[in-house]
Protein: DNA-binding transcriptional regulator, LysR family
Organism: Carboxydocella sporoproducens DSM 16521
Amino acid sequence: MNLRQLETFCLVVELGSFTRAARVLHMTQPAVSLQIKNLEEELGLPLIERGEKQLIITDGGHLLYRQAKRILSEWNILQDGLEQLKASQTGTIRLAASTIPGEYLLPVLLATFRNHIPGVSLGLNITDSEAVGQLLLERAVHLGVTGVALKDPLLECQPWRSDEILLIVGPEHPWFGVQEIEPGRLWESPWILREQGSGTRKVVETRLQTLNIELSQLLVLMELGSSRAVVTAVASGLGAGWVSNLAVADMLAEGKIAAVRVKGLDLSRTFYLLRHRQVFLPPIAQKFYEFLLKQV
């Protein structure tokens, strides 16, 4: 078994086709099939079965795929580390961040860091907090930034910067211009929420529970995948929403939306820097991690 076989197998699984995998790998379809056959013979298990319309991945195939992805990710990290040991001022830093830090904090910090170290290449994957943790566990990225602390023993969560989540409404909403409402009034409005897995949503859910309110009990009109989408929907008059202060500072100043306090509800939170406890960071990624720790 070799890395080339594992790469070929993973690509066949992901594309669902020997032919498409061969095209991506610039190989012939029989050559790809032969690699998978040799892999099956070496392992003594069928991995992929050809159905009438699609490939069927066996239980053994699913197990191999999960482990192969980890092995290939480890190999990529090792290659990065070795290359950067040769030239510690160059290399690639792979990051994952939840929406707010990914859109409003990291781009400026990445630009500042690159101005000091022009040889570095930076990659940023913006997703939800749970997905950030998963990417770190899969060793697909070096570092992560989230709006909640993830409770996996393999992940180190370092408190980083503070933030506040705001309840926002548009000009046509009955609460526009109201400074504070009682918690019992939350049932009066339809709600525009972030999707499941969002750090913002998790904080809101947890803090509402301190007031004996379940977020699921409110009138949820829609769930959206980004803070920008929530702000746009709220400004359009579809309902109220919760977003980070960082996402709405300009619109608040322009009067396009308004923030409303809920009596007794504290929505301050912390952003966290995340790294895998068992992964050796390449020198350039370690340098960036230390740089971020100073940006409080």
Summary: The longest strand covers residues 155-169. The first helix runs from residue 3 to 15.
